[in-house]
Amino acid sequence: MSGNPIFVRGMSRSGGTLMVTLLDAHPEIAMTYEFYPNLLLGADSEDIDAIISTLEATPDLNTAAKRMPTLGLSNLVKRAPRARLDNAGLAKQMQAHVSAGLGFSDPGHRLLFIERCALHNMRLAGKSIWGAKCGTNFDEYAARWPKAKFINVIRDGRDVLASQLNTGDFKADPASLGKSWAKNHRRFRNLVRRGSIDGHEITYEELIKNPRREAKAVFDFLEFCFDDRVLEFYNQGLNIYSVGHMSMPALVKPINASQVGRWNRDLSQDQVTAFMSEAGEAMKEFGYV
Fold first, then answer.
1. Which residue range(s) make up the domain with 97?
2. pTM for this one?
């Protein structure tokens, strides 16, 4: 089963982390969070042996992250605990990757490194299938794992904008986000229609409205038996609760509708207009207007 991974895509602040946590709460599925292959870009131009040595010699991940030569590697190091890796563990995975004659400049090699770390997480969790959040390069994932399953989480783009403007350091531009929202969701739908990927769409709003029905539909798509415990993810002692995440306030309690429609109170009319100038037609296609 480990050759049939599950990938979740959702624009930042769309509910992708919630979906990953629901999946991770299943007794057979182990998910990693934001372990993206593009974090490894530029690693080949650096001294890999020196990077590995730094990880081995540094007492904690935060300090090691500050000593990484690229921002991507720094973020990868910070996120290592999300795959149950500490300094030495991440160094060991990198050394095994390099010893296998693989690098980080080739997209396929970067995906293999993510797989290596995700399999490590799966084995420690005692589960039989692995998964992760993915980027928009679905074709590359599907080429590497032809039997992979993809889940795209869609959320009202205005709520996505409101969340990005008020959480973290996204520096969202309304028009640019609108263009990305339309492009990404249309592309996923087109890839599924063409049979390029085996994908399933779920909307954040429907998941909030009827969690059991929507979650069951996801597990039916994945061909896994639905387990009611996934809806009590906050009581499952999952790894994510020991390492922290930006979405933690939403992950420590049951699914609720407190953030649905937040754009009405959080966005100005100018922000809504700028977003809709780029996403308006796509928002209609996906049933939001």
1. 6-285
2. 0.94
